[in-house]
Amino acid sequence: MEFLPSVTYFKPAGVPLAQLEEVRLTVDELEALRLKDVEDLDQHACAARMNLAQSTFQRILSTARAKLARALVEGKALRIEGGNYRLVVRAPQCPACGQRWAGTPVPPVVCPDCGAPAARRWRHRGPSWGQT
Description:
Helix content is 30%, strand content 8%. The protein has helices at 27-38, 43-49, 54-74; strands at 9-10, 22-25, 77-80. The chain has a 3-stranded mixed beta sheet with strand order 1-3-2. Helix 1 packs across helix 3 (54-74) and helix 2 crosses helix 3 (54-74).
């Protein structure tokens, strides 16, 4: 898993929290939604990124989509918490050549391998820089 959400609770506008039922979406279900529906990866790539069998990924994705639909259609609050996951934090990566710098807290100003300038946007996934 490469992503932890910074916002973990959603509720319908105008409805007091005390009147709402909740739907609980696990962090691994959110990751399945992110990989498939936001990053637009095929299911085999998603399963590989989550270190799961494709059939397990499909089950998690189906459950997540059903929970999300239920929350939206029935006007329920959505809480994201729990689940079975292990966070992977990737090191900074050069957008030009793909080189990563393990243990580097911030990307270098210029890529030492290809010389890409700092003006280019560096890719980052996860809550902090660190080793993959």
